């Protein structure tokens, strides 16, 4: 089963580039940029990665991202993640980045996106991995601030496919960003959002009804509301589920109580993703491996999850067809 999971072609649809920042790379970049970080060793950093909730994690995550200054830093961060994609048979990835985490510190938007984009181009040339970018607004900041980010993004519009909404969920409902999402859609960006990770089902309703999102990041708390489940199924909206993240942030007590299989049985289109792999103890394959064990998933379930990852991606229909036919061949050979 582990071999099957590692080898099956897949896409990753929920990944924060800042959340791929491994302690070793963080140390190296901090050193070359002459920035002090409050940890003496890689081991000390890893020990600090114990979280009671989303906010605990976010405090450390934003601190870590604070050492990123130059285009090369963003390139190195992103290329390091894409190297791991190549090793895990990830054929396609949709990368979220948080511009405000960097522009707030005086790093220009152009520096962030150019570094990330160049890494994506190189990974495409080297391994044939396709990727696209999701610009995420930080929901703990104001809508006005998000509008500033939208404006900064416009010269790079061709490099960005979608907008997302992340950071501290409780107290920052999707409706707070109604106008900026509308403006983003008018610019051609596809609307996505984190919803129902810590926030209740009503946040998911708002993300669907007010922000008109095309995919739900997390969506765990959709399980609170039967009407919502029916709507998600009827609208054919996929969930980007992140099992190890949910465990690390105590969204679920442990993986054996994770609702992923229940969601699949209800007809919800689910995908498996790593969210912030450097912080939550595993890349995408580890997420598949651990949730498979915890919920006793079959090869067919794993195949369905991989299939959803391509079908509900934002890739072109031509690319989807190529990936889905490769997946089909793999599955028939490895049943
Ligand atoms: N930013 C990075 N990871 C996140 C998560 N799991 N939820 C909300 N914001 C995030
Ligand atoms: Zn996330």
Write structural notes for this entry:
- The chain is an alpha/beta fold and 335 residues long.
- The chain has one domain: Alpha-Beta Barrel (TIM Barrel).
- The chain is 52% helix and 13% strand.
- The strands form 2 sheets. Strands 1-2-3-4-5 form a 5-stranded parallel sheet, sandwiched between helices. Strands 6-7-8-9 form a 4-stranded parallel sheet.
- Helix 11 links the parallel strand 7 and strand 8.
- Helix 16 runs antiparallel to helix 17.
- The model has no long low-confidence stretch (mean pLDDT 97).
- The structure holds adenine and zinc ion (ZN).
- The site of adenine (ADE) has 10 residues, from loops.
- Zinc ion binds next to strand 1.
Keywords:
alpha/beta; 9 strands; 335 residues; four-stranded parallel beta sheet; TIM Barrel; 17 helices; binds zinc ion; binds adenine
Q: How is the biggest beta sheet arranged?
A: 5 strands, parallel
Bound molecules: adenine, zinc ion
Number of helices: 17
How much strand content do the residues show? 5-15%
Domains (count): 1
Report the order of strands and helices. HEHHHHEHHEHEHEEHEHEHHEHHHH
* Secondary structure: helix percent: 40-55%
CATH architecture: Alpha-Beta Barrel
CATH superfamily: Metal-dependent hydrolases
How far is the first residue's CA from the last residue's CA? 10 Å
Q: Indicate the CATH topology.
A: TIM Barrel
- Order the strands across the largest sheet as they lie in space: 1-2-3-4-5
Topology, number of strands = 9
How much is the average pLDDT?
Answer: 97
Morphology = globular
Based on secondary structure, the structural category is alpha/beta
CATH class: Alpha Beta
Rg from alpha-carbon coordinates: 19 Å
Q: Spans of 5+ residues with little confidence (pLDDT < 50)?
A: none
